[in-house]
Amino acid sequence: MTDPGSSSGAPPPSSPGAPSMPVQCSSCIVCGGTAASGLGPPLCSNCRLPPTPAIDAPMATPSVSRIPVPQPLPVPLAEPPYHFHVPWRRISSPNDIRRFDASTSGRHFLGFIAALSHSVCGRKLSDPVPSPLSDTVIGLLSLLQTLTRWIDEFPPLAHALRICNPAYRFWHARLTDKGYDLVLALLAQYDELRPAADELLPYLLDSFGNVYRIDYGNAHENNFAAFLYCLARLGLIKEEDYPALVLGVFSTYLDLMRRLQIIYNLKPDGGHGGWALDDYHFLPFIFGSAQLIDHKYMKPNSIHNDDILDYFSTDYMYLACVAFVKKVKKGVFAEHSFMLDGISGAASWKKVNIGMLRLYKGEVLEQVSIMKHFLFGSLIRWE
User: Fold this and answer.
1) Global pTM?
2) How far apart are CA 201 and CA 203, in angstroms?
3) Among 279, 284, 368, 335, CA closest to 97
4) How far apart are CA 74 and CA 240, in angstroms?
5) Which of 33, 213, 239, 354 has its CA 20 to 30 A from that of 129?
């Protein structure tokens, strides 16, 4: 994981008394039109409402606005004969990032994330899924519920530091000890796929934080998404499962991570927290903005209404993320979450969703500091 405080690629905020940044012409992060990027997120007049009376800070590198909007892609099924093996890290340079970005694995992994986002457009967390839950989705929910129960068995320990409670290591040791059996339970009905447990296990173990530094961030969240992608490559998750995968499995994973972060005071791993979205997560902002597309009443600037957050955060991931940020961070929202504040001026949730997908590609999947922890095996191949 990246060390706390490491650069995420974000430009530093201006120091008091420093000369004002000149306004430069660049491309809108949503539609590619002309936008002034010197102050605030680069959004054109069609994609942004009048700014809120708060701090407008620099948001994204100009290259992000030129990223094509990621589109949903079908997951290619792995075919026998299988050659499962323990995955390992392969990315260590910008050239490696470019290789992954151009590869079949890179394109289809991003297409999988875009497809998950598309599957929950206009859906609430409480909405019934369009089809009965598959055995794999039920198994994933059971796995996450088991991990959640373990937290009660390892209460926080008294220690000198405010963060990084060492009791987390006992919880993670249990995961390491029992993880293989948890993965094998997902494959129990498929004898020919049981050897895949060795390849899937490292993704699962790296989905819940670093046991040594007691931190969590984008790299861990990415490996959980990769774990789900590998299950889809094995045919255990199908496209009709996607709504349940997001609204059920991923939201349960998010709830579990919130508990781990609060109870064990996991520190951020230094990923995109500098972008003032959230110190730990990115994907729920993609899925959550998709949920709110075409909502009749709630608009992006509704995040400033605390009554809306209180009432609707149990149904919409984006609102739950904002509510959590406001709970754990003190001070003026526009100062500690300047990007969320700026995005709230977008004209629609569709534009927010497009911008989030672009940011995910540019500021997560194209960052060596994050992707150097990504794992490659036979299901996500290094080409």
Assistant:
1) 0.84
2) 5
3) 368
4) 12
5) 354
* Whether the Cβ atoms of residue 42 and residue 29 lie closer than 8 Å to each other: yes
Amino acid occupying residue 274: G
SS (H, E, C) 63-112: HHHHCCCCCCCCCCCCCCCCCCCCCEECCCCHHHHHHHHHCHHHHHHHHH
Beta strand spans in 262-344 (E): 267-268
- Residue 194 has a CB neighbour count (10 Å cut-off) of 14
Rounded Cα distance between 250 and 344, Å, is 24
Assess contact for 111 and 232: CB atoms under 8 A.
Answer: no
Joined together, the tokens standing for residue 292 give 């709110």
The alpha carbon of residue 49 and the mean position of all alpha carbons in its chain are separated, in whole angstroms, by: 26
Torsions phi, psi of 315, nearest 5?
A: -110, -15
Q: pLDDT tens digits for 205-240?
A: 999 999 999 999 999 999 999 999 999 999 999 999
Q: Is the separation of the CB atoms in 243 and 120 below 8 Å?
A: yes
Whole-number Cα distances in Å, 216 to 70, 213, 267: 26, 9, 6
